[in-house]
């Protein structure tokens, strides 16, 4: 180290450890059935590191999420990365627990990659004269190597210095980013220059010195494909440079002084190892008696523990130890009749469909599977093109099979169990089976008990609850170019895969169904989630009509307006330039116009993200304001007006979205393909897009929207008398808040004062900080803090509510909505302050957002029956947060609006009135 006493900080690239461990070890599960091979490998690698390479300070750096500031620079950044392996997803949280159990700080920060945090810590230590060792072999970190920063390969246990960097890139660490920008990186979807590989890139940088000098020299190069590519893709290379350059000025979540190496707590570490089933490590650590670990004994224990990794783990307990398969292939009606009879005798069967596509409204059923008991399942193929056992065509026809199954599906005495029932019901409807009842859905049974705790996919639930890893779709169809359609999979392999899905579904039902009562989720599932399945299936099948001509007109209008705005931008700038180029825009604003407030990145380019432009626009800089307007139109055009036309079903003239029932932590529905819940509503352009959603001839659209439902729930659950009174009297809640907090009269209130109260009201729901409120209102953080303090002083019940939710989350790991839904809050006890603060905000908001979601779901379940009983010709089309949209006969619109309003307002009983506002129109914008 450069200075005696200066810190030697060892930074572990957490992702590198995790993925190396996951791919190096065979599948392993802990006593609860959770996959732990990556967790076990991570623990062993951390043990070895602490034994052999501990400096004075140590931390593990994790990625907080996939979306970072780089996605604002280049939306396609890392877009092509495949989904994480399902076995790995539940292990991330356990690995963070492991880090804490070993007494090592685990650090992450939203909006930034782990590499940026590593770079910032390395710079901070280097500036003090200390040394930083990065434990990773990631090439992206090699740009950091210098006099005070080195790297170590965690597998080979070899140092990585300037010589190793030059051997890999052909340049020293200071030129690595220039080479990377030229050659790009397909793994992270960094574009680079097409046709330029590592050797050419390093040769160019060694000849010209930097990326920018290479690009400047390109026009003078001899004619070649390389020259043409350098000229045509220069901006892509500059963007690539931004993407590969690590930030060294990220705010440090923990100061370096807090990362000092400390002894692990024997009790905490021992208990955690026991819970994971890592008893061998516990004993090697000498933790049998729970005695305190000294630094010396800890090191000695670690040496003993760091031996070869085991190849097996403690098998999870299963409710029934029955084999998965072999299963039957049913190719004639007589065999199918035997399975139908077995289902009728047992009174329950699991059902699963196989299709030739993922859109249930368009996919054909290739086959279906049935399970009547654990280990007893079959596959019924319909459209397979060839088999190993029989010539092509020896299968039951779809029509004959479904005719035989129709009585079973309609039999009220036989329960049909699905995993993600809505998808299968829509597939059956397309095939001609309209009635399948009664049904259960293992995905929703699990979701009702564990929203936010883990994913709800069948494979993840199987590993978690059954300790069994099912055959994957990739296993039978292949991957990439080698993938074949499922109908071309041979029947023996198709049966093993498809029948196992039904078998797993039935076993999950046996395990999870009884837990609904003990987890106090039975009413939630029976009264809300299960009946909502058919309601949403109906909505998806109906779709909503769109005006393709209007959407195309809007696209042309937006394009024309963009052209006009662009011309005005060029006039203001004094010259033409590429408005979509952040680099060129930065040069205009800060170099040529000399505006203040610009910030340069490491490469020297100016930042021109939306926050920078908004600050300039707030200062009255017209050019920044016009750039923001141009960008908004560009996004609306690409995301909505262009995309919706392509997503319209040409046969119906309607857009058919898909509602995801088990994604969010709070119980809210989400919408995709297309996402109709994110269409902007507060701008004229957003309203124009909504005008493209129309009612057919003779009908109108009816919108019914809960008014300020989350604030009403807050007034109710926090028991705030003045807010409750305001809602009961129908007063303007924001004006009443302003009057109470700021001591001003309701009559003649200054609109700015009301706006500030409104910002506080809504901000409190999301745990807004003084900094956030100040930025929103354009006032100093100190003044914003005074507003928040005054708010809590006037409404102490709200602070008590917030404190109670934080405490509830820390005590149980979840918070509960007014209707009893558990919303799990990962990270509530995290050592990382940013992660913990985010979880606390979730804990405050989840009961309110989740309560609103529960209430509108309850209304959605009740409305179809009420409307049918009232003989009102109405169909429900969309659910968008707190709004429901209907299509109704014009002459029945007013009566329908009255009925809908009543049912929605009576959906739940809370301490303040629920108010629903309705609107009727020929299109969505008019109705809303």
**CATH architecture label of the domain at 328-516:** 2-Layer Sandwich
Please state roughly what percent of the residues sit in beta strands, choosing from under 5%, 5-15%, 15-25%, 25-35%, 35-45% or over 45%. 5-15%
Distance between the termini: 66 Å
| Uncertain regions spanning at least 5 consecutive residues | 288-320, 387-392
Instruction: Let me know the largest β-sheet.
Output: 6 strands, mixed
Offer a few descriptive terms:
single chain; alpha/beta; Nucleotidyltransferase, domain 5; Taq DNA Polymerase, Chain T, domain 4; 38 helices; globular; DNA-directed DNA polymerase
Characterization of the model:
With 928 residues, this protein is an alpha/beta fold. Among the domains are: 8-162, Rossmann fold; 328-516, Ribonuclease H-like superfamily/Ribonuclease H (Nucleotidyltransferase, domain 5), CATH 3.30.420.10; 547-647, Up-down Bundle (Taq DNA Polymerase, Chain T, domain 4), CATH 1.20.1060.10; 714-842, 5' to 3' exonuclease, C-terminal subdomain (DNA polymerase, domain 1), CATH 1.10.150.20. Helix content is 50%, strand content 11%. The protein has 38 helices and 22 strands. It has a 6-stranded mixed beta sheet. β20 (874-880) and β21 form a beta hairpin. Its EC number is 2.7.7.7. It catalyses: DNA(n) + a 2'-deoxyribonucleoside 5'-triphosphate = DNA(n+1) + diphosphate. Residues 6-262 form the 5'-3' exonuclease domain.
């Amino acid at each position: 180290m450069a200075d005696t006493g200066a810190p030697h900080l060892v930074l572990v690239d957490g992702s590198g450890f995790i993925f190396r461990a996951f791919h190096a070890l065979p599948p392993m599960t802990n006593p609860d059935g959770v996959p732990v091979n990556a967790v076990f490998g991570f623990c062993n690698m951390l043990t070895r590191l602490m034994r052999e390479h501990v400096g004075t300070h140590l931390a593990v750096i994790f990625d907080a999420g996939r979306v970072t500031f780089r996605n604002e620079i280049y939306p396609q950044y890392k877009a092509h990365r495949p989904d994480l392996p399902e076995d790995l997803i539940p292990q991330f949280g356990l690995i963070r627990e492991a880090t804490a159990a070993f007494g090592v700080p685990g650090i992450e920060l939203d909006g930034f990659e782990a590499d940026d945090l590593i770079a910032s810590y390395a710079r901070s230590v280097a500036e003090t004269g200390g040394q930083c060792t990065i434990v990773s072999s990631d090439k992206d970190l090699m740009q950091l190597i210098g006099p005070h920063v080195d790297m170590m390969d965690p597998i080979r246990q070899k140092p990585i210095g300037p010589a190793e960097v030059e051997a890999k890139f052909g340049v020293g660490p200071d030129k690595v980013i220039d080479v990377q920008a030229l050659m790009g990186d397909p793994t992270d979807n960094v574009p680079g220059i097409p046709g330029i590989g590592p050797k050419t890139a390093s040769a160019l940088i060694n000849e010209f010195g930097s990326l920018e000098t290479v690009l400047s020299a390109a026009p003078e190069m001899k004619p070649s494909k390389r020259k043409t590519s350098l000229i045509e893709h220069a901006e892509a290379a500059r963007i690539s440079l931004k993407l590969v350059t690590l930030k060294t000025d990220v705010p440090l979540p923990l100061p370096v002084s807090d990362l000092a190496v400390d002894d692990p707590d024997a009790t905490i570490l021992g208990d955690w190892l026991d819970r994971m089933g890592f008893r061998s490590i516990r004993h090697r650590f000498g933790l049998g008696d729970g005695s305190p670990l000294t630094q010396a004994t800890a090191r000695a224990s670690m040496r003993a523990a760091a031996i070869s990794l085991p190849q097996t783990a403690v098998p999870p307990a299963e409710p029934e130890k029955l084999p998965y398969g072999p299963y039957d292939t049913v190719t004639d009606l007589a065999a199918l009749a035997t399975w139908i009879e077995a289902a009728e005798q047992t009174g329950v069967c699991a059902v699963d469909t196989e299709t030739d596509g993922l859109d249930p409204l368009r996919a054909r059923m290739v086959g279906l599977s049935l399970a009547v008991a654990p280990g007893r399942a079959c596959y019924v193929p319909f459209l397979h093109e060839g088999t190993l056992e029989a010539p092509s065509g020896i299968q039951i026809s779809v029509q004959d099979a479904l005719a035989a199954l129709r009585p079973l599906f309609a039999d009220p005495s036989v329960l049909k169990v699905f995993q993600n029932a809505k998808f299968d019901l829509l597939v059956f409807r397309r095939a001609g089976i309209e009635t399948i009842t009664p049904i259960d859905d293992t995905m929703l049974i699990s979701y009702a008990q564990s929203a936010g705790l883990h994913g709800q996919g069948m494979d993840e639930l199987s590993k978690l609850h059954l300790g069994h890893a099912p055959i994957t779709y990739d296993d039978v169809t292949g991957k990439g170019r080698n993938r074949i359609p499922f109908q071309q999979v041979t029947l023996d392999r198709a049966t093993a895969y498809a029948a196992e899905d039904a078998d797993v579904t039935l076993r999950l039902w046996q395990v999870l169904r009884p837990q609904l009562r003990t987890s106090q989720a039975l009413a939630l599932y029976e009264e809300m989630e299960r009946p909502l399945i058919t309601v949403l299936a109906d909505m998806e099948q109906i779709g909503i009509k769109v005006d393709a001509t209007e959407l195309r007109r809007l696209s042309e209008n937006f394009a024309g307006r963009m052209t006009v705005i662009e011309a005005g931008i060029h006039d203001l700038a004094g010259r033409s330039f590429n408005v979509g180029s952040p680099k060129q825009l930065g040069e205009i604003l800060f170099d040529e116009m000399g505006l203040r407030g610009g910030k340069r990145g490491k490469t020297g380019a100016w930042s021109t993200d939306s926050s920078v432009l908004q600050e300039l626009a707030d200062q009255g800089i017209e050019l920044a304001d016009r750039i923001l307007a141009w960008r908004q139109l560009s996004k609306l055009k690409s995301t909505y007006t262009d995309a919706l036309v392509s997503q319209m079903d040409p046969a119906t003239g309607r857009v058919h979205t898909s509602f995801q029932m088990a994604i969010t932590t709070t119980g809210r529905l989400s919408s995709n393909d297309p996402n109709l819940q994110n269409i902007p509503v507060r701008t004229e352009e957003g309203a124009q897009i909504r005008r493209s959603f129309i009612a057919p001839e003779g009908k109108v659209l009816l919108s019914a929207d809960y008014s300020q439902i989350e604030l009403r729930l807050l007034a109710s659950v926090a028991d705030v008398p003045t807010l409750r009174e305001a809602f009961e009297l129908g007063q303007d809640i924001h004006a009443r808040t302003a009057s109470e907090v700021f001591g001003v009269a309701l009559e003649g209130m200054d609109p700015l004062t009301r706006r500030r109260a409104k910002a506080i009201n809504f901000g409190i729901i999301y745990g807004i900080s003084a900094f956030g409120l100040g930025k929103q209102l354009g006032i100093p953080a100190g003044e914003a803090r005074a507003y928040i303090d005054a708010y809590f002083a006037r409404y102490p019940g709200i602070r008590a509510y917030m404190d109670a939710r934080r405490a509830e989350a820390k005590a149980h790991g979840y918070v509960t909505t007014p209707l009893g839904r558990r919303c799990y809050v990962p990270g509530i006890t995290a050592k990382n302050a940013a992660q913990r603060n985010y979880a606390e905000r979730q804990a405050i908001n989840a009961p309110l957002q989740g309560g609103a979601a529960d209430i509108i779901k309850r209304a959605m379940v009740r409305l179809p029956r009420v409307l049918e009983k009232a003989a009102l010709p109405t169909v429900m089309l969309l659910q968008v947060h707190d709004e429901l949209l209907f299509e109704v006969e014009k002459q029945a619109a007013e009566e329908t609006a009255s009925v809908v309003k009543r049912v929605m307002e009576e959906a739940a009983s809370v301490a303040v009135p629920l108010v629903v506002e309705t609107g009727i129109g020929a299109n969505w914008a008019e109705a809303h």
